[in-house]
Amino acid sequence: MNFDDILKEFEASKRPGYNEDERRAEDVRLLVDAWVKERTVPELLPYEQELIDRILIRIRKQIELIEMNSIELQTHEREIKLRLVVIESELDRVQFIIRSYTRTRLQKIDKYSLYIRSNDKETAKLSNNEFAYMERHLELLLELYNSQFMKNLPESLQAIDETGGGVSMIDEPDLDRPVFVQATAENVVEVDDEEIELTKNGIYVVRYRAVKDLVETGDVRVL
């Protein structure tokens, strides 16, 4: 595909009824939603594998096409260059969101790795790369603790995942942390034995635990 083909594809994507453009816009919207939710809620959410894969494939193709025609870009008129600047700006925006989404998930994995590892439901939320990262992170952490101080402690005190005695050493997400949400449908949630009615399009500050299931079903949207 040459430079003119890129421009034709770009022009076609702006015409009404062009399905690829609609799919691309919908994927970006879903990515932003996943990013906002991951940054807002206290727990780790399921990894959006298929969505991320689709977007990364598009990004690679667009970058390759632009790089292949970088020399020809210098000789075309200003209007065409402006259109390509718009394409590159959109690529930068999407890449920023993906990086932020990934960093947010890794921060949660670092903080709650013992909790995630001990819970099959939580482990299932990880991508293959995230699972490998978590295992390596825990391995290095244990090596550090052992070399610095744990080897000098009695064997009975060397566990880092002790949950006995009414005190847990495993950090868990605080599901009672308040979050801002917008209801997308009429619903009722229970907080401290009190029922709260959620009206459609209403915005609320509520404990995440109360709306956790509704976030998963899409009946409320995290802001």
UniProtKB/TrEMBL annotation:
Keywords (alphabetical) are: DNA replication, Nucleus
Q: Which compartments is it annotated to reside in? A: Nucleus
A single Gene Ontology CC annotation of this entry is: nuclear replication fork
Secretion signal, residue range per the UniProt entry: none
Q: Which GO terms describe its biological process?
A: DNA-templated DNA replication; double-strand break repair via break-induced replication
Q: Give all residue intervals belonging to the DNA replication complex GINS protein SLD5 C-terminal domain.
A: 173-221
Please state the protein's primary subcellular location. nucleus
List, for all copies, the residue spans of the domain called GINS subunit.
Answer: 79-147
Q: Name one Pfam family in it.
A: Sld5
User: Which family is annotated?
Assistant: Belongs to the GINS4/SLD5 family.
Subunit comment? Component of the GINS complex which is a heterotetramer of SLD5, PSF1, PSF2 and PSF3.
PANTHER family registered for this protein in UniProt: DNA REPLICATION COMPLEX GINS PROTEIN SLD5, SLD5 PROTEIN
Role, per record: The GINS complex plays an essential role in the initiation of DNA replication.
Q: What protein name applies here?
A: DNA replication complex GINS protein SLD5
Species name for this entry? Answer: Ogataea parapolymorpha (strain ATCC 26012 / BCRC 20466 / JCM 22074 / NRRL Y-7560 / DL-1) (Yeast)
